[in-house]
């Protein structure tokens, strides 16, 4: 079983920076504004080829009363997510800030951690502030044996801490009995691996405008309250990974913050969130665009659709909050949606209600179908035959100045995004309408309707053309 580690501490002590450093990613948003992290964000990292799961949590505030509740509902949810992370974890990395010194918040947090009886490692961050180095002495009053001084920004003491932590893990967690169990698990895993030869790993990025129900959708799929759900805009900040297994297939669900147009971004956090979303779309296999059924399709939704379509990544659409539509208006609303999406020729669409858990039974089936479409492989001879067939059915019109355009052969340039390279002469004069015709014909013939195709035309060069 993979050990789980929770990063716990006050706001702005450097938990998200440490999370990004260990997981070698840039997933967690880092900002000086308190409360930037809200959800439980998880990812894995390795020490000596041993895999660990690291959970980044929201900062715990001293303003909670003894029952752990607060007037602000959103902060109450953040607190609940942090407590769940403590309960789930095998080890706790308790991070503090040497600049601030020890406060009442540290004692409050420590009481909550000790209720779960977990092994605690105290990390004193920002020791590069040498003027405050004497503040380290105060932290010994917390009664934690394992204390390490680090600086995340200057990479001081981190390697030493990881070595010590790994030695402790090997000493405490791996006994002779564990070794025999580990051998048994390895043999069982090898047997299972033969049976699970066809299992796949799919990375799914879920995007949409604010308050369309992305987080509640993930909670329903996972059957767990992993993400904070609230009516306030931008409840989800940055990127949050969730992992699940369905019929021996592994899925990584990526929750993202609500997207808005460039002209409507009010602060740096929104801008950083937008950049991270675009990076995750590029890395993922499938992108799911979530729409709000009660709001129909607005210009903001079309803007998001165009962003995804330009990347060439496989995608499909989920229309959430279908329970808010009256039954007698089903046909009318669907007709309006299809009309607004008429600029896209082929796409899959699901009408769901994450609140009532309806319509999600086909989620994994559709995701698998689109993934397999995007990973299909075609030979150069087969693609050339299809392009030749397309030309026979609809001959290429003469280019500018009456120049003859010829398409000679085609081959696959890449998958996910799907790229087909077509070689020919005078291809620069091919009209946009004919290119669209080729894309639609290829999608239909190759039987990949939900996978966008990008065409790249390459001209054959004749070295004697310019010689007199």
Helix and strand content put the structural class at: alpha/beta
Strand order, largest beta sheet: 2-3-1-4-5-6
Low-pLDDT parts are 64-71, 189-197
- What is the percentage of strand-forming residues? 15-25%
How much helicity do the residues have?
25-40%
Radius of gyration: 27 Å
Instruction: Please trace the helix and strand order, writing H or E for each element.
Output: EHEEHEHEEHHEHEEHEHEHEHHEEHE
Describe the structure in your own words.
The protein has 468 residues and is α/β, with parallel strands linked by helices. Helices cover 35% and strands 22% of the residues. It is built from 12 helices and 15 strands. It has a 6-stranded mixed β-sheet with strand order 2-3-1-4-5-6, sandwiched between helices. A hairpin with a 2-residue loop joins strand 8 (239-246) and strand 9 (249-256). The longest helix is centred in the middle third of the chain and has 20 residues, at 176-195. The radius of gyration is 27 Å and the shape is elongated. The chain starts with a strand and ends in a 9-residue tail after the last strand.
Summarize the structure.
With 468 residues, the chain is α/β, with parallel strands linked by helices.
Chart the SSEs and their pairings.
Layout: E1 4-9, H1 15-23, E2 41-47, E3 50-56, H2 73-88, E4 91-97, H3 104-114, E5 119-125, E6 147-149, H4 158-173, H5 176-195, E7 201-208, H6 214-222, E8 239-246, E9 249-256, H7 268-283, E10 286-292, H8 299-311, E11 314-320, H9 330-340, E12 349-351, H10 363-374, H11 380-393, E13 406-414, E14 418-425, H12 432-446, E15 453-459
Parallel strand pairs: 1-3, 1-4, 4-5, 5-6, 7-9, 7-10, 10-11, 11-12, 14-15
Antiparallel strand pairs: 2-3, 8-9, 13-14
């Amino acid at each position: 079983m993979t050990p789980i580690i929770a990063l716990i501490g006050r706001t702005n002590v450097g938990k998200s920076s440490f999370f990004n450093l260990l997981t070698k990613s840039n997933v967690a948003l880092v900002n000086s504004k308190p409360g930037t992290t809200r959800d439980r964000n998880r990812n894995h990292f390795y020490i000596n080829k041993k895999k660990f799961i690291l959970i980044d949590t929201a900062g715990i505030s001293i303003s909670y009363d003894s029952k752990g509740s607060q007037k602000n509902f959103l902060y109450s949810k953040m607190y609940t997510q942090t407590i769940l992370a403590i309960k789930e974890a095998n080890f706790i990395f308790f991070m503090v800030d040497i600049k601030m010194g020890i406060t009442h918040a540290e004692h409050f947090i420590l009481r909550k951690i000790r209720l779960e009886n977990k092994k605690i490692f105290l990390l004193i961050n920002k020791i590069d502030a040498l003027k405050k180095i004497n503040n380290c002495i105060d932290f010994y009053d917390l009664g934690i044996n394992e204390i390490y001084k680090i600086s995340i920004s200057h990479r001081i003491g981190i390697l030493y801490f990881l070595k010590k932590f790994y030695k402790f893990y090997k000493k405490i967690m791996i006994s002779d009995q564990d070794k025999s169990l580990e051998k048994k698990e390895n043999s069982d895993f090898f047997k299972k691996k033969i049976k699970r030869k066809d299992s796949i790993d799919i990375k799914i990025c879920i995007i949409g405008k604010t308050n369309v129900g992305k987080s509640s959708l993930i909670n329903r799929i996972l059957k767990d309250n992993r993400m904070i759900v609230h009516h306030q805009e931008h409840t989800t900040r940055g990127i949050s990974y969730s992992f699940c297994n369905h019929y021996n297939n592994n899925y990584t669900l990526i929750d993202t913050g609500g997207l808005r147009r460039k002209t409507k971004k009010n602060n740096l956090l929104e801008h950083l969130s937008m950049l991270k979303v675009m990076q995750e779309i590029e890395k993922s296999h499938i992108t799911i665009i979530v729409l709000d059924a009660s709001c129909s399709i607005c210009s903001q939704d079309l803007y998001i659709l165009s962003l995804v379509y330009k990347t060439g990544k496989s995608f499909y659409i989920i229309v959430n909050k279908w329970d808010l539509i009256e039954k007698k208006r089903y046909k009318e609303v669907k007709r309006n949606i299809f009309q607004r999406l008429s600029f896209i020729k082929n796409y899959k669409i699901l009408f769901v209600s994450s609140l009532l858990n309806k319509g999600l039974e086909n989620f994994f089936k559709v995701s698998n179908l689109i993934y397999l479409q995007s990973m299909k492989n075609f030979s150069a001879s087969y693609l050339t035959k299809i392009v030749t067939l397309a030309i026979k059915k609809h001959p290429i019109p003469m280019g500018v100045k009456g120049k003859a355009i010829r398409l000679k052969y085609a081959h696959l340039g890449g998958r996910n995004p799907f790229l087909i390279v077509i070689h020919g002469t005078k291809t620069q004069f091919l009209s946009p309408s004919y290119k669209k015709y080729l894309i639609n014909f290829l999608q239909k013939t190759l039987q990949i309707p939900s996978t966008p195709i990008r065409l790249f035309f390459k001209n054959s060069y004749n070295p004697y053309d310019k010689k007199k």
